[in-house]
Amino acid sequence: MISSNIIRALNLTKQSTRNTWVLKRVFTPESTPPGGIQKNPNDFHDYQKYETVEVETLKAAGPIRVILLEDVEGIGHQFDVVNIDRTTARKDLLLSKKAVYASPYDLKYYSAMKERMADELAARVRIPYEFKTVGRDLQKLVVPIKVNMENKWEINRKLMKSSLRQMGVFVAENTIHLAEKQITGPNFELEAKLIRFYLVINQQYIVPMLGRISHISVDDSKQTLSSSLTTPKDEELLRFNIRKEYPLYTNSQEFTEDFPVFQHMRENAPLKPQ
Amino acid sequence: MLSLFRQTMLRPISAEAIQVRGRKRALKQTITRQQKLERRMKREEKEAARKQYTFMERINIRRMKNLLSPSQQYPGRLIPEEEVNLPEKPTLDVFIKSHFKTQFYSVGEALDMHRELQSPSIYNNPNAPIRLRLELNMTTERQTKMITGSDEIVPVPFPFKHNEKRSILAFVNDAKLQELATESGAEMALGQDMIKKIIKGQFRTDDYDFCVSHTDMASFILPLRGILKTRFPSRANGGLGENLPELIEKFKNGVKLNIKGDPVYPIWGLSDCVVGRLSMANEEIEENIATVIKATCSHRNPALGSFINRALLLTVPGEEYYAIDVQKWLPIPTEEEIEKIEKRKNKKKKKDEKKTENSSEDQQNEATA
């Protein structure tokens, strides 16, 4: 019993805790005139009343500064010194050695290393985090391309734009790239057919997308049953002659409106997630 | 070792004994004035909360809490606090709606997007009616009172075909004019003699969407103000005039504006109306929307803040919705209206002060006693 108490006491004294209280007197005693004898502040009860100004325990400790040892998505690049939330830093970055505390020694050490590796770092292709997140969300979609059952239609940029907008994706018309072969209708053989098209973000990042043609009509009696909008399996992609591709990035803004994106992707598309 | 023993065992916390039995003096102890005051405040607060709604309202609210409120049903209500952490404007030319704060478009942009969707190759409804859905804030100057629901017809500058039946009641004394009124589209034309019947309840006016009145009846219909409420014809809403056929035509082609409070969250409201058709010019629809919004906003003191929380443009039928920017049409509070609110606030403050003064006096009295 005693020994465990002792151990606890020892541990408590070792580990620093954030438990400072800042107090303020409720009644401030008069200052003693020069030459006078100071009164005992404990003479009156009122002088022993305090109110809390601040409790350290209740205040958030704030972020900590770490040096990243590798590129971490959404946080920063290698050797960046960042202020980061305590919990993420302690539970993820520091444990997995993706980062170290920004101690004076390490700051000096890694800034020297950064200078040494400057050429290598500059040559590295880094996809901006913003592009990555948008690309990831876009790839999850299978855009239903709604086309009229009775009227003539052809799949063009304008139609794709409004189809995308219905899924909550707002794009400029010149970012959409479609296959050269025209798809026109109404043609019920094309119903539920998957087609490949590309979205180019900021003329830098090509995101392969999937669309599914579905014929619609305002008339309820003519509605067709379209297959579900979930991500298609590999066999289904194969059936429509579509290859599984992943987004492609370049540093320069070369994927303009007239760029042959389809041809470029046929040759250069990454087939594994980056 | 000894020092350790001192550190642990002689600390007051380890010497603390739990008193299991003992004198229960504390139970008999009278409560202090401070505690008394606190308790009273708490009780009063509870009572005020209870008084806010009537018994039936409370039951209804409890019942409706289980359902999804009309404001929350698709397309939902904009709650700015929910999207505080999202970035304001998209920076890329491709963006996903849910990653950013609600984007407000001009009426022209929203209409163009709708037109694209309703084009022949997609939904093929280029003449679709345009629905304006307004999410409202129903609070008033008084905390316990909400803005009451209302039904009215707003005459719009650019009428359109709405395929709705409008029944209009005309008040006119002259028999010839009565005939003219019915000919030009009024459901019924009533004279001076019917007014008493309406007051007595022998003639129901509930089924009529709006009333117009000839100026010669202006003084006679005054007792109907309480019955007709927002449908009461006056110079302000344009229902009172000389030229009946023109008036009737105006209201037949008007927009039916319906303001409804949310049964679950009384501080929210909804208003749905058709403001035009997709084939109309952008400027025409814009004008119509401006008139409707002006009519809606007249229900509440603009000094209280915006009556409209968010305005959405939809088509009928259709699920696509775009939030439109209505800032420029919202009324600017006049000094008079601001004064009204401030007067109320000051009054309340004074009341509170008085209350505290009274309580302090009570305390003093008690002390002297």
Automatic annotation (TrEMBL), chain A:
Keyword Metal-binding: no
InterPro entries linked to this entry: Ribosomal_bL9, Ribosomal_bL9/RNase_H1_N, Ribosomal_bL9_N, Ribosomal_bL9_N_sf
Keywords, alphabetical: Ribonucleoprotein, Ribosomal protein
Domain called Ribosomal protein L9: residue spans: 65-109
Any one GO MF annotation of this record: structural constituent of ribosome
Record protein name field: Large ribosomal subunit protein bL9m
One Pfam family of this chain: Ribosomal_L9_N
GO biological process: translation
Protein family per UniProt: Belongs to the bacterial ribosomal protein bL9 family.
Any one cellular-component term (Gene Ontology): ribonucleoprotein complex
TrEMBL record, chain B:
InterPro entries found in the cross-reference section: Ribosomal_uL1-like, Ribosomal_uL1/biogenesis, Ribosomal_uL1_3-a/b-sand
A single GO cellular-component term on record: ribosome
Protein name: Ribosomal protein
Organism: Caenorhabditis angaria
Residue spans of biased composition, Basic residues class: 343-352
Ranges where the record places region Disordered: 343-369
Matching SUPFAM superfamilies: Ribosomal protein L1
Keywords: Coiled coil, Ribonucleoprotein, Ribosomal protein
Acidic residues compositional bias, start-end: 359-369
Family: Belongs to the universal ribosomal protein uL1 family.
Name of one Pfam family that matches: Ribosomal_L1
Coiled-coil residue windows: 27-54
